[in-house]
Design brief:
By secondary structure, this protein is an alpha/beta fold. It has one domain. Helix content is 31%, strand content 14%. It has nine helices and eleven strands. A six-stranded mixed β-sheet has the order 1-3-2-4-5-6, sandwiched between helices. It has a three-stranded mixed β-sheet with strand order 7-11-10, with no helix packed on it. Strands 8-9 form a two-stranded antiparallel sheet. The longest helix is centred in the middle third of the chain and has 19 residues, at 139-157.
Length: 347
């Protein structure tokens, strides 16, 4: 059991973080030149090639709910500041990650997942490490996410309610989208929930955008659902410890420090680097919120197998979704049911 868990963790780390591929269509002389070249271009989201995932069924058999998803960081480069997906290897890696992370939502929604030009990993981490942090390396991704979402709304949504899903940099992209695009009450009413996992969402985000609200339970609507998982004795994290960091426990759907036992975990699901399931473990871990840091404290069944050498000992960032996979699937179903039971709109 330990052997496949260890291999799975290493493969996942490689798939999520270490895709060292060209970041621009043509080589740039410097990181700054690469950024400037990317900023001059916009993405044609009418072209299906610029989408990671689209529904593969006729319009008349689509589910009544959509899922708009943005993937986590998949790009590392010493030469380029901005990801592009010209390489088929990069496209395949991104699709594998997207297929894994959208799995809990496939039973309830049609997935629309754009390719977006994310910031390079080390530039993003350096920006997050600043106090206060900066979003500058992610701004192109913010713009692409907004462009793709507008295209999706105009051409494909057809009035359906939707769920937003993102992890890590993808969650940052969607948080920016919520702040900038969701001031319209009509749009807010179509949002079932925004699962922004692996991203520090703080009181400041809500005070600066009063149209946003945080999840407080398993069935509330139009809310941001967020957590960042780590061990009890984890190293200082880029994702927790900021004043007013929000967190909800995906095992009991509480926002206080009441712990949830491992028995509440319906099943963790793990994958290899090519999107194949390598194992599913019920009762894999319990979880509790540490109010002073906003961290979700987790004790995995196999301690020491999930630490990130890049992010720090005990930081389970890459497994934020996988540890709670089946609970997340159940919650997505329950929130959708809550939405339609409430008359088909967010209250």
């Amino acid at each position: 059991m330990r052997s496949w868990m260890k291999i799975s963790g290493l493969a996942l780390a490689a798939a999520v973080l270490f895709s060292a591929l060209p970041g621009c269509v043509r080589p740039c002389e410097s990181v700054q030149a690469c950024r400037l070249a990317a900023e001059k271009r916009s993405i044609d989201y009418a072209n299906p090639e610029n989408w990671v995932m689209l529904p593969d069924c006729p319009a008349d058999v689509l589910k009544p709910v959509d899922v708009f998803y943005v993937y986590p960081t998949v790009f590392v480069s010493k030469k380029h500041a901005v990801m592009h997906w010209r390489s088929e290897t990069m496209r395949t890696k991104t699709r594998n990650i997207a297929g894994q992370q959208t799995g809990p939502f496939l039973p309830v929604g049609n997935v629309y997942a754009p390719f977006v030009r994310q910031g390079e990993l080390h530039l993003v981490l350096a920006a997050l490490a600043e106090r206060p942090g900066t979003d500058k390396p992610m701004e192109i991704g913010f713009r692409d996410t907004a462009d793709a979402f507008r295209y999706y709304l105009k051409h494909w949504n057809n009035g359906r309610p939707f769920i937003l899903v993102g992890h890590s940099q993808g969650a940052y992209d969607l948080l920016a989208l919520l702040k900038r695009e969701f001031k319209d009450p009509a749009l807010q009413k179509k949002l079932i929930a925004a699962y922004l996992i692996g991203c520090p969402v703080t009181d400041e985000d809500f005070s600066g955008s009063p149209h946003l609200k945080a999840a407080e339970g398993p069935l509330d609507l139009g809310v941001i659902v967020t957590w960042n998982s780590e061990a009890r004795e984890a190293a200082p994290s880029l994702f927790t410890g900021r004043p007013g960091t929000r967190c909800i426990n995906p095992l009991n759907w509480r926002t206080d420090a009441v712990p949830a036992p491992a028995a509440a975990n319906v099943g963790a699901v793990f994958f290899d680097g090519e999107g194949r399931v390598t194992g599913e473990i019920p009762a894999f871990c319990g979880a509790e919120i540490r109010p002073e840091t906003g961290a979700l404290v987790v004790t995995p069944e196999f301690p020491g197998q999930y630490d990130s050498s890049l992010l720090g000992a005990g930081i389970f960032h890459m497994n934020d979704i996988y540890f709670f996979y089946r609970n997340l699937e159940i919650n997505a179903r329950d929130r959708v049911a809550s939405y339609f039971n409430a008359g088909g709109e967010t209250k």
